[in-house]
Design a protein that fits this description.
The strands form two sheets. Strands 1-2 form a two-stranded antiparallel ribbon. A two-stranded antiparallel sheet has the order 3-4. Among the domains are: 67-99; 102-229, 2-Layer Sandwich (Glycoprotein, Type 4 Pilin), CATH 3.30.700. The chain is built from six helices and four strands. It has 235 residues and is mainly α. The chain is elongated, with a radius of gyration of 44 Å.
C-alpha cells in the first residue's frame, strides 16, 4: 500500500507516523476502522457502568444523617429567624440613634428660626410683619432695606407636618412669637415647642460676620415679590 503526503505530494511505501518525512508537516489522523470504533465505544460503556456502580456504592455507604431529617431544617429556619430579628433590631436602634429625639430636633429647628429672625432684625431694623411671615427669611420682601438673606434655605413644616406659628403682633421680651405646635398639632397647648430666647440675641460679633447666600454660594438667586407674582415661588 502506498501513502502520499497531501502537502508535498511525496509518496511512501509505509504509513508515516505523525510528520511527513519529506516536508515535516503534520499529517492528519489516520482513518479509524469500524472495528476500532466499536472497541472504543465498548470501552466507554464499561467505564460509564463502573462509574455508576461506584456512585451507587458510595451513596449506600453514606448514612442519612441530619440533613435528611425534617428537624434539621426546622432548627435551621428558627436560627435564621432569630438572626434576622437581631439584625433588624440592631438596624432600628442605629436608625433611632441617628434620627435622635424628635423633641430635641424640633427644639433645634425653632432655635434656627429664631436665630434667622435675629439676623433679619439686625440687618433691617425690624422683624417680618404678619403678612410677610417667615417666608421673608427666604426671599427679599423688597420693602425691607438692608435685607441680606436668605437667612434659611427654605421654610417647611415642623416634624409633625404642621406649619410653624409666627405672631409678630404678640411680642415676647422684645421679640416675636414663633413656635412649633408639637406632637398634638394644636397651638397654645402644653407641648408647644418654643425657641431659646437667647437665640434672638446672637451678639454683634457673630452677626457682623454674616455673609449673604448670594455672595456665599455661587449660583444662588435671591427671590423677590416680583418673582413670586410671576410664579417663581409658591409659599
Amino acid at each position: 500500500m502506498t501513502y502520499r503526503c497531501p502537502y508535498c505530494k511525496q509518496t511512501f511505501g509505509e504509513e508515516p507516523s505523525v510528520k511527513c518525512p519529506a516536508c515535516g508537516r503534520l499529517l492528519g489522523a489516520r482513518p479509524v476502522s469500524a472495528s476500532e470504533r466499536r472497541a472504543r465505544r465498548r470501552a466507554k460503556e464499561r467505564i460509564w457502568r463502573e462509574a455508576e456502580r461506584q456512585k451507587a456504592a458510595l451513596g449506600a455507604s453514606v448514612p442519612g444523617g441530619g440533613r435528611r431529617n425534617p428537624r434539621f431544617y426546622l432548627v435551621a429556619v428558627l436560627l435564621l429567624a432569630v438572626l434576622g430579628g437581631l439584625l433588624l433590631k440592631t438596624a432600628d436602634t442605629a436608625s433611632a440613634r441617628k434620627a435622635g429625639n424628635p423633641l430635641l430636633r424640633a427644639m433645634r429647628h425653632v432655635d434656627t428660626l429664631a436665630t434667622a429672625l435675629a439676623r433679619y432684625h439686625f440687618h433691617t431694623g425690624r422683624y417680618p410683619d404678619a403678612q410677610q411671615g417667615l417666608y421673608a427669611l427666604v426671599r427679599d420682601p423688597a420693602d425691607a432695606p438692608g435685607w441680606d438673606g436668605p437667612y434659611v434655605s427654605h421654610i417647611a413644616t415642623d416634624l409633625w407636618d404642621t406649619p410653624y406659628v409666627y405672631r409678630p403682633d404678640i411680642p415676647t421680651n422684645g421679640h416675636p412669637l414663633v413656635f412649633s405646635c408639637g406632637p398634638d398639632r394644636r397651638p397654645n397647648t402644653a407641648d408647644d415647642i418654643h425657641p431659646d430666647p437667647a437665640c434672638f440675641h446672637p451678639g454683634t460679633d457673630w452677626t457682623n460676620g454674616w455673609v449673604s447666600a448670594a455672595r456665599r454660594v455661587r449660583g444662588v438667586r435671591v427671590l423677590t415679590k416680583e418673582d413670586t407674582a410671576q410664579g417663581g415661588v409658591t409659599p
